[in-house]
Design brief:
The relative contact order is 0.13. The protein folds into two domains: about 5-165, no CATH class; about 175-280, no CATH class. The longest helix has 16 residues, at about 215-230. The protein has helices at about 5-10, 10-20, 50, 90-95, 95-100, 105-110, 130-135, 215-230, and strands at about 40-45, 60, 70-75, 120-125, 140-145, 175, 180, 185, 190-195, 200-210, 240, 245-250, 250-260, 275, 285. The strands form four sheets. Strands 6, 9, 10, 11, 12 and 13 form a six-stranded antiparallel β-sheet that branches. The protein has a five-stranded antiparallel β-sheet with strand order 2-1-3-5-4. Helices cover about 20% and strands about 25% of the residues. The chain contains eight helices and 15 strands. Strand 7 and strand 8 form a beta hairpin. With about 290 residues, it is an alpha+beta fold. It comes from Arthrobacter ramosus. Keywords: Signal. This is Septum formation family protein. InterPro entries: Septum_form.
């Protein structure tokens, strides 16, 4: 991660970006025209100040080269703001972002299925520069970027279009790393991308922990249909087990359905699984 991101990651800007809003000041930085962005373009954004601008004018780079952001959607500023001759202020543009740069469109761009859980993703949105706005541009650029554990953007050489349907999906998938105590894995686990060592893989099916699922067997029964959908199987394949995670937040208990290789020796070496069990991906054990 570039050194300049370290301070940014601990600032309010990181929280704003992860919340998916237009970040920063109502300023324009020098660079390429911003009036005609294109879906699929990648950008190497080199400083926090570029994220702090309403417009982001860095030139596109090849998505197979190092980059920070990739445009997954281009849309238009709606009326009545679009009718203004002068570009609206930061707060007005910011309020549009959650509606215009939606998560559903992002999941479609990534090739995500219903059972594909993700982690380490953020959304940023950029409007035309003042000059481009005055020339009639109204396009909003919706970008996706990968983030580190501290929330700071991280570079990648992955083309994210359709990535969850391909062999490189582990970098975006949500997995859990549980701790081993007295020969048993903890009920909870830390969120990690599936490229890091982990003990279970999320299958995007969560439900409240209540009396009907109080036992491990009941939780497995509830999770089984989702696991079969994730694995594209009619029955749980040999060598794969269910391993639901229990997450407690503010006193509320949630069960997160997850799967794991049955034969990985978690009692003696937990956290040695890397990769994904998704049919299009690859999985190995260390």
């Amino acid at each position: 991660m570039p050194r300049s991101w370290a301070k940014w990651a601990t600032s309010g800007a990181a929280a704003l970006l992860l919340a998916g809003i237009l970040s920063g000041c109502n300023q324009t930085l020098p660079g390429v025209p911003t009036g005609n962005p294109a879906v699929g373009e990648c950008h190497l954004i080199v400083s926090p100040e570029q994220f702090d601008a309403v417009s982001e004018p860095s030139p596109p780079v090849a998505c197979t080269k190092e980059h920070i952001a990739q445009t997954y959607k281009v849309t238009q500023v709606p009326a009545p703001l679009s009718g203004q001759g002068t570009r609206p202020g930061q707060e007005q543009l910011k309020a549009l972002t959650a509606r215009l740069c939606d998560v559903a469109s992002l999941r479609t761009y990534l090739g995500a299925g219903e059972r594909d859980g993700t982690t380490g993703l953020a959304i940023a949105a950029y409007a035309p520069s003042r000059d481009d706005w005055e020339r009639g541009a109204r396009a909003v650029r919706c970008d996706v970027l990968l983030t580190a554990n501290d929330g700071a953007p991280r570079t990648t050489a992955l083309d994210l279009r359709g990535v969850l349907a391909g062999p490189d999906s582990a970098a975006l998938r949500l997995c859990y790393r549980q701790e081993l105590a007295d020969g048993q894995l903890s009920d909870d686990g830390a969120d990690v991308p599936c490229t890091e060592p982990h003990t279970a893989e999320d299958i995007s099916a969560w439900f409240n922990l209540e009396s009907s699922v109080a036992t491990p067997a009941a939780r497995n029964e509830r999770c089984l249909p989702y696991a079969l959908q994730f694995l594209g199987a009619d029955a749980l394949p040999a060598g794969i087990t269910l391993r639901p995670i229990i997450r407690t937040v503010n006193g509320a208990h949630t069960v997160r359905c997850a799967v794991a290789p049955l034969q990985s020796n978690v009692q003696s070496s937990p956290g040695t699984i890397t990769g994904t069990l998704a049919p299009a991906g690859g999985q190995r054990r260390g």
